[in-house]
Design goal:
This protein has about 300 residues and is an alpha/beta fold. About 35% of the residues lie in helices and about 25% in strands. The protein contains 9 helices and 13 strands. The longest helix has 19 residues. The chain binds zinc ion (ZN).
Length: about 300
Amino acid sequence: MVAKETVGCNLCGESSSFALFHGSDRRHPLPGIFTMIRCRACGHVYLSPRPAPSSIGMYYPDTYSPYTRQPGWLGIATRWMRRREARSLSRLVAPGAHVLEVGCASGDLLRELRACGLHASGVEFNARVAADAREHHGLDITAGTVADVTGEAVFDMVVMRNVIEHVPSPRDDIHHIRGLLGPNGLLLLSTDNLDSWDRRVFGPCWYGYDMPRHFNLFSPQSLERLLNAEHFTVERVSFSLVPTHWLVSSRYWLEDRGLKGRWLEFLLSSRNLPAVAALLPLTFVQRLARTGGRMSLLARKAA
Ligand SMILES: [Zn+2]
């Protein structure tokens, strides 16, 4: 029996909501049925009931893909993207600036940030992954959540990539980050976009829902609302190319109609290079139309 908890809206505090759909963990064969709901007051979409703190760990097994190294061309592409990402982040701050990455996993981005001349440190929920990265790459990584990082005005920038959707209280984390940032400090948040074309096409089969790991789903507007409530000003909203959303969501859609198999898992995954290439034009148009599958908001701590 999976321990669950019922929660209210993290954005406005309202507890009245209506169910959108029910679902289970599609990535791993794990038990538990969960419900995606919409807040009646502000329209925010979140999971409730969701796994209680005592049972959430089981939904992050060692096979959970962010904890594993990407094989072949995907690994090369990922390293290239991290390097590019680190260079563009380093241009936002002064040389030698202090940067914290929340949810740094094995520290791929931290290593690239360090190579760009920044003081980079991280915090990672998975203690084993954090210890591995410390040992193998000499990185400054705390095991835990952002609440375990203490101090006042110690960072110039905080980066939180694909993490805000996983945390129990995005509001508390943003509030805590505000205290960690110095005057005019920057916060870069990236997460799946609830307002994307892929979410509209696939509905409950959308990969971005990733039940039951994603507790809160955001649109550019709702994420900005949260940031404004915690005294941040959004300076830029950008979108990335995410062919994986189309591939994996199509697989979930087919699986719901009885089509299953390892061949399908390969065919409709980011390991299938021709399929990824075929989807790039569509995702590029999506980015131009500002409806991409993943968004990044760059926000500045308001005075
Ligand atoms: Zn609400």
